[in-house]
Design brief:
3 domains; D-Maltodextrin-Binding Protein, domain 2; 9 helices; Arc Repressor Mutant, subunit A; alpha/beta; five-stranded mixed sheet; 22% strand
Length: 307
């Protein structure tokens, strides 16, 4: 087994085809195909299922991909740190659900970073991908929420990935709507009042189940459903369409104009927190990011109480 084989494996998995991976790596298709066949023969497993539409990972391939990412990331860090003339590059990778506070903390840490060389990565992604990213060492930290509904399923996934969940804050469920929405002047909204309006939700990819939803109460009936993958689209839909989004009630800066947050009449609570790997010691940069997260959450809570 070689690092090159593992790099090819990761590229093929990410691009979904050997042709696309070869094109992006400036390598020949035959070299990638041979490398994967040799790896399959050595490990006595089938890594990819081939079809006319490309390739998909088998269950063995998914497990191997996680290990491959760990090995390649560590190898890159070693090379960067100990290569002749090289220096230690500061790095922070974050995978998170679509929360403005996580992005703000990320920006603040970048602005405070005085390193000559650094690499920062911010991934706003699906719930399942967050757990996979942190579990495979692709990201140092993941940010998501738990509640009474998804707790059992997500805690098992978190445990299986050898991760630890640290709570940041609890919040009641709020309804985000545009300021011209018929519900915008309500001081509180009953769940049944939402039934006639389009439900906005963040796409969860292949794990699009109720338990992996980024929004609470995802099991409620929705006759009209709109799935998107980024906060910018959600913001546009809220301001220009009569849909609604369920979340913590904390509005991002870009959502302040034209959008209102109204409490939903329910006893359900969201427990937002972060994931870290049990076998990975936090870097000083990660510790700064976590401290900034906590400070932003504290300041937001203080501001809400003052209002």
């Amino acid at each position: 087994m070689t690092l090159q084989q593992l790099r090819y494996l990761i590229a093929i998995a990410e691009h979904g085809s050997i042709n696309a991976a070869a094109y992006n790596l400036y390598a020949s298709q035959s070299n990638l195909s041979t490398a994967i066949r040799d790896l399959e023969r050595e490990l006595d497993i089938t890594i990819f299922q081939r079809s006319n539409r490309g390739v998909t990972l088998t269950s063995d391939g998914i497990e191997l991909l996680g290990y491959a990412r760990e090995v390649v990331v560590q190898a890159d860090m070693l090379e960067s740190r100990y290569a002749k003339g090289g220096s230690s590059r500061t790095r922070l990778a974050v995978s998170a659900q679509h929360y403005a506070f996580s992005v703000q903390a990320f920006i603040d840490v970048i602005q405070e970073c005085g390193a000559d060389e650094y690499e920062f990565i911010m991934r706003e992604t699906s719930t399942g991908q967050i757990i996979e990213d942190v579990g495979s060492f692709r990201s140092e930290i993941g940010i998501l929420y738990l509640d009474d509904f998804n707790k059992r399923v997500l805690e098992k996934a978190i445990h299986d990935a050898n991760l630890h969940f640290t709570p940041l804050f609890e919040a009641g469920i709020h309804v985000f709507v545009g300021e011209r929405h018929p519900l915008a002047n309500h001081t509180i909204i009953e769940p049944e009042e939402l039934e006639e309006w389009p439900y906005l939700t963040f796409e969860q990819g292949t794990q699009n189940s109720f338990y992996f939803s980024e929004e609470p109460l995802s099991f409620l009936p929705h006759s009209r459903l709109i799935r998107v993958s980024d906060r910018g689209t959600i913001t546009s839909l809220l301001t220009h369409h009569n849909g609604y989004l369920l979340s913590t009630g904390v509005l991002a800066d870009e959502m302040q104009a034209g959008i209102v947050s109204i409490p939903l009449k329910t006893t359900e609570r969201m427990r937002v927190g972060y994931l870290t790997h049990r076998e990975r010691k936090p870097s000083p940069l990660l510790e700064r990011y976590i401290a900034r997260l906590c400070q932003i959450v504290h300041d937001s809570a203080s501001l809400s109480q003052a209002e």
